[in-house]
Amino acid sequence: MLSAAANPARHFYCDSRVAVLLPLPLAGAYDYRVGADPVAQGDVVEVPLAGRTSLGVVWGPGSAATDPGKLRTILRRLPAKPIPEALCRFVDWVAAYTLAPPGAVLKMAISVPAALEPPAPIWAVRARPIPDGLKLTATRRKVLETAAAHPPLTMADLAREAGTGDSVVKGLVEAGALEKVALAPPAPFAAPQAHRDGPALSESQAQAAAALAEIAGFHVWLLDGVTGSGKTEVYFEAVAAALKRGRQVLVLLPEIALSAQWLGRFRSRFGVEPAVWHSELSDGKRRATWRAVADGTAAVVVGARSALFLPFPDLGLIVVDEEHDGAFKQEDGVCYHARDMAVVRARIGACPVILASATPSLETLANVQAGRYHRLHLPDRHAGAVLPEISMVDLRRTPPPRGFWLAPPLVAAIERTLAEGEQAMLFLNRRGYAPLTLCRKCGHRLQCPHCTAWLVEHRQAGRLICHHCGHATRLPSVCPECEAEDSFAACGPGIERIAEEATHRFPGARVAMMASDTVSGPHAAAEFVRQVADHEIDLLVGTQIVAKGYHFPMLTLVGVVDADLGLEGGDLRAGERTFQLLSQVAGRAGRAERPGRVLLQTFQPDHPVMRALVAGDRDSFIAAEAECRRDAGMPPFARLAALIVSGPDAGAVDDYARRLARTAPHTEGLEVIGPAPAPMALLRGRHRRRFLIKAARTVALQAALKEWLAICPAKQPLRVQVDIDPYSF
Ligand code: ADP
Ligand code: ZN
Prior knowledge:
- The protein is an alpha/beta fold.
- The protein has a seven-stranded parallel sheet, sandwiched between helices. Strands 19-29-28-20-27-26 form a six-stranded parallel sheet, with helices on both faces.
- Helix 1 crosses helix 10 (338-349), helix 4 packs across helix 5 and helix 6 runs parallel beside helix 7.
- It is globular.
- The relative contact order is 0.08.
- Residues 1-7 have low confidence and may be disordered.
- Adenosine-5'-diphosphate binds at residues 199-202, 205, 225, 227-233, 382, 551.
- Residues 212-378 form the Helicase ATP-binding domain.
């Protein structure tokens, strides 16, 4: 199924030295001597390393600088397919861009070491000529006749076919009347049916689909269409086109574990399930999937950001759905943005990439404006469905009654919706019961001992939990500060509290919550989504996971409990992010025949985000945001990096941060801001200080950072984490 381009001539090395990259956070590749087996670029090998052995990948020719006497020899070449050239180049590129050690990036590419060994064979048996002197009972004869009449069967299958037990079959194997043969494992993924017809497309959909399907080489598309405009149907046409060319396709989704609806749509379009890649796969599935990607039998992979590092030999299209979503940014280990790296991967693989969104990021829109990306526009919802009408509930004028969180206009709207037999959704981006627990006597607030964060009460679980490090404890019966008994009060709402209020206010309504801790794992999520779609739930209370692309035809009202929530804090991206999230949430309403309504509860009805949402005026909002960023000299109009210095001891962290500040580069066009306490000044027991480095587009930012950090490198337990293009700033 692979095209010829997939296997360009590889460079073999024999009788010499090669550079081997190890999946470890080392500065670079190490030289090794080639053993008896010749090896080629991309081969996976086992090498000696400090008294142990390590996996590695042949990365290129060795450097003459290493003393030949010190060279150690490659132990063996693994029987795995070589790591594709494009993936090796991608690893190098990501390492150079993010300043992560190349081995740390390679580790993401060979994340399933077990997949590098051949799969365990499946043993079957087949008939042989009957040996002399074999005692032939009727059962034995039946087994031998059955074996002769079938292709090789496993012993259990043969026994079942012949209507007998395993021991009879085993006896025949021992007697030499049956022989064991190894079967090739079945391909885990069936080929998608690219030639099946999709739905009839509207004119604007058809135009966009035709443009997408036409280009096979590197090209970046922005598929910009309002929620419900059919972006998925349109990019499915591009998927079909890539499959018809015999090439592989990667689709990145922000919450792959919650994508049952997406998978169902894929199945109805292409007749089969795609391969899925995310952190909750079982080991066996992970191994089989990795191998199927490597040998090309997984034609379509839908995955989380880590799927970018799978060993596609012949990638022909990448789709990044909801390209604006913050979940694409990885913020620990190797810090990278999967959307941007998808563009890099596409360039290296010479294939197109489609970024789809109803609310594209400022970065992507700037790239469209600069002519680097090409925009395709879907202006309307499919089949005449209209966009929901968005209005505000001004909490200063019509506040909820004391101790409640839903204001009268929202309550009235929900009552009407339920009376019409329709569904409503309440959105609050906060898990648990209450974000803060405080002593009524002395005002003491329960805080995480390891993080700059309040402990969040989860009443259903009977716990106070830190949402940053997972620290969990029971509610103390005595205040640790003033020793008052039973003095703690919950402050503010989380979705558990909203669900409690909803149950109380709308008796008879079937209320259900959806958050990552109440609905966890793909199966629970799929079942939950089915219940909503089948109208077994009337009122849905959820966090941002309910915002992600679901299509619920009977859902006509969305109430945003606290529209101001995301605007708190000094983050310059807060406005953009809130606008995107709330547009996404609003987009769940009225997606079919019945029109939808959205009510935003806010204390800031004059805030530009609220005004833009109500007016449905994305373009003016984006223009104003862009203006703001340009004035502040911030991305996407300049480049930005964050350095986070951290360690267990605050004094040592401050000392080191000051030393770094003294050696900061004085380069034209580059500005170092800080050190200042990082947004989470204490996280998992580590104190954190942050530098922001702003650079003009003309400055070699990575080189400057590298030089700077080499002057006084951090010594354990201090650490410096580099985050190029940080998501928050
Ligand atoms: P978006 O991804 O832009 O939010 P979707 O692709 O989810 O939009 O489409 C919204 C709904 O409309 C889905 O149920 C989809 O199946 C349906 N739809 C979109 N385009 C068509 C079409 N051309 N024919 C039939 N159904 C369509
Ligand atoms: Zn914590």
